Amino acid sequence: MTNTTGAISMPQTDERGLTAREVVQREQNGQTNKVKTQSSRSIGQIVRANVFTLFNGIILAAMVMVLLTGSWRDSVFGFVIIINTGIGIVTELKAKRTLDKLSILVASNYVVRRDGEDVEVQHDQIVLDDLLWIRSGDQVPADARIVATWGLELDESMLTGESRTVRKKEGDQVYSGSTAVSGMALTRVEAVGEHSYAATLTAQAKVYKKTISDLTRGINTILKAMTFLVVPLCVLLIWSQIRAVGGWDHAIATGEWRAAVVSAVAGVVGMIPEGLVLLTSVNFALAAMRLARKNTLVQELESVETLARVDCLNLDKTGTITDGGIAFSRIVLLEEPVEQGGPGASAGNGGAGSARAAKQALYDLANEEQPNGTGQAVLAGLRDEGFSAGAVDARVPFSSARKWSAVVEHGSLWYMGAPEVLVSAFSGDWSGVLDQVNGYAADGNRVLLIAKADAGLAADPKDFAASPRIIHGARPVALVLCSERIRPDAEETLAWFREQGVRCRVISGDNPVTVGAIARKVRLTGDERPVAMDARDLPSDVNELARVLEGVDVLGRVLPDQKKAIVEALHTQGHVVAMTGDGVNDALALKEADLGIAMGNAASATKAVAQVVLVDSKFSHLPDVVARGRQVMANMERVASLFLVKTVYSALISLAVVLTGIPYPYLPRHITYIGALTIGMPAFILALAPNTRRYIPGFLRRVVHFALPGGVATAASVLMAAWFLPGVMGWNVDDSAADLADLRATCAIILFVMGVFVLGRVAQPLNGWRGILVAVFAAAGVIGMFIPFVRGFFALVVPQGRLIPATLIAMGGSVAVFFLCLWIVPMIWRIIARAIATR
């Protein structure tokens, strides 16, 4: 704490503030401005949540069982646990770091009055009931009430969304997180630390919320369904395989229990689409990397595909459609009404209403030492038209308290300021001018008035500058129209969303008339006029709110909790909602939405809770995000179908093995080899292929509908070979290890051929690179059988001798079964679906 008496010029006041003893008491009671920065989940919790999953448990248990048998080559499937768990932990740790850095308030030093003296303290040293000075440029560190004010104006846009500054008076509340743009005030702190408004928003924003995509939800449903089958089937498989080798006593005595366990694991591992879980994570990560090259940061990988499903997009006006800056539009000259007794000069008579004279005066009025945003926009616009600074005899700078500025030049006195303030001080009836002002304001313009008076009415210019006032005899000359700068890409991007069937709404804290006018300029609803509404008139009931929202395109005067309620209401109607924003007031709504999108210049709180951040704040990047989401969703649907075929045939084969008591027809290493060539590696390539197909709800239903025929056909082909080949070929698989090895080698070949057929069906159309893809992996599978190391490691056998006719017979039957199932299974599926639908 530093004494700043004399170093900082503060207004005189009788308030003495807290004593040193009172400060100590509040510090001991914990009534300080410290805010805990702990996020919702620790590193240990994140690691445990990703390591101890049902999927990992099943795969790990299966791997341990195989390792106990000593057949380590059959346990290579377990490495997927390490890769998949690592991706999950890294992703969530990144989210945790982002959340831990979340802070709405910028740490800096502040001036408080204690024991009658002004002292400088750090943000955390402010205590309850402190007398706090808020100066121009300060961010309000704690909730307080104004004791005395010297023209304080606050920018509360980060909290309320209202882009205009708010002038405060004695007794008004000021909230932490707002920023003082002009003036000064002495305030009494009423809420500190976690009880302040900014800290409350931060705490709500910091609650960890993991994005669950439709794709992930579908995969999780598949995993849960498999869970109910895996455990009992694993027990039954071990039991059936022990019986197949002669019972428990014989299996333990001879060591054949090891082969029984390996066989059981082959069925269990085949049912779990472990590669699908891994490929989903990898595909999300690669999509995020591609988007990063286009200045789009994806903070939660699963959110990549969410925009492919979005049908409602809520847009914040400031920072999304507009860039937050102000642009000079034009100057509108006014005609003096004859009944005013004026000369009746019009815009074109070259008198007081002369366009050039008015623009030169406007330039000089705006050309202050430190012009505000509007002044800077006016100067930039007029410079482009060739204007420069003129000779000014006297100047009255703009004041937020006065709401006007003035210059004296060339014997004339010019005013610029708020129309209602200036006109109310002029003599005569100028209601027509105010009507024009209201008309332009309704079109989304910020309107200033230029007025002129004879400098003789103001006496000496220096006297006027020392004692500024409005001359009653002044007359309005022109209106200055400024508007928020609309992003050049806004209209085109909104048109793209309209074509894609996405309903866009603008939700802002600004005046609904102004927001509605901007929405018209960017053609939010195309050729139709957008329907605007004041959020203060919205119903509180969520169902009634949802009904009202269906007919509204623009909402103004929206509070932060209303933005969140709007998202909740849209959810009740089954909509998938995306929300853009840049202010703290948007943080809770972004978190509630299915997909939160923050601009790069957004508040740290907003960026921390968003799933996607447009780093360069370009709204036009959103179609890129949508396209990438569609690619992920469409391609992963193909890939999921491919993996689920393995799940279906593994479950059917396992069930048949239990019921008929036959040895399991292939080894875990067989399914590892075949799965890698017909599912894993091809799936990775297919998942990254270009695809712009629009997402259609029903991911899981379509995947199952596709996988059933291929899975049933593959299971039937393998089982027919396992049941009938021993009889046809004279093999004794119960007593001869060589015959069992031949049968398993033949079944593995059948499995590979069927896998190639399924891959060809998934990769359609096969013209071009897709056909080459299928051919390459089919050839790789065959070539691998002739490589000694590969053949030995995966227990493959090249058909020769008696295996040649067995393989040909089995393959001929498999082809017939495959095409028969493609015709019969979908027909049965449709009959069942129709029967369920008519119930």
TrEMBL record:
Keyword Transmembrane helix set for record: yes
Residue span(s) of domain P-type ATPase A: 111-204
CDD domains documented for this protein: P-type_ATPase (cd02609)
Cellular location(s): Cell membrane
Keywords, alphabetical: Hydrolase, Membrane, Translocase, Transmembrane, Transmembrane helix
Keyword Glycosyltransferase carried by entry: no
Name of one Pfam family that matches: E1-E2_ATPase
A GO CC term attached to the entry: plasma membrane
Membrane disposition: Multi-pass membrane protein
Regions that span the bilayer: 51-70, 76-93, 219-239, 259-286, 639-664, 670-691, 703-723, 743-760, 772-797, 803-829
GO molecular function annotations of the record: ATP binding; ATP hydrolysis activity
Protein name as it appears in the record: HAD family hydrolase
Organism: Bifidobacterium vespertilionis
